[in-house]
Amino acid sequence: MNKKNALTLILFIVLTVAGGNLVGYLSIPGAWYEGLQKPWFNPPNWIFGPVWTVLYVLVGIAGARVFIRERGGSLTRLWFLQLALNFAWSPAFFLMQRPDLSLVVLLGMLVTILLFIAKAWNRDRPSALLFLPYAAWVSFAGCLNAALWWLN
């Protein structure tokens, strides 16, 4: 890997991890969230930070790979779209206190993630594979979001 590609990789990882952490910090769950009726499968709050950090690293690596291969191509655009939707979810859910709106955002994010995987499968299989745990977690998050909306 040359220096330019290494710098791109570092920047994409920093963008996703730092951006996700910033959005999370600005959207800290408060009394409203604590007062919600939770489904039986709601994980403990402490699990979200470590899981998202690992996922953001994987997403950042995939983003760097597709950016290096095809700057401005359809995979790069899908990558940035899923990240924008990802970063929009926490404010919609925690700040606006809108489980319904955040579920719409999350569904859009999941569709974008799945499109990324499908398009990357033949173009850059490692990037597609890096997105599989992300798709699984966002699917679970969608079930959790839908349950919170339904119960409350």
TrEMBL record:
UniProt keyword Manganese present: no
Highest taxon above the source species: Bacteria
Coiled-coil parts of chain: none
Keyword terms of this UniProt record: Membrane, Transmembrane, Transmembrane helix
Transmembrane segments: 46-68, 75-95, 101-121, 128-151
UniProt-annotated location(s): Membrane
Topological relation to the membrane, as annotated: Multi-pass membrane protein
Chief site of localization: membrane
InterPro entries: TspO/MBR-related_sf, TspO_MBR
Similarity comment: family membership: Belongs to the TspO/BZRP family.
Name listed for the protein in its UniProt record: Tryptophan-rich sensory protein
Organism per entry: Hoeflea alexandrii
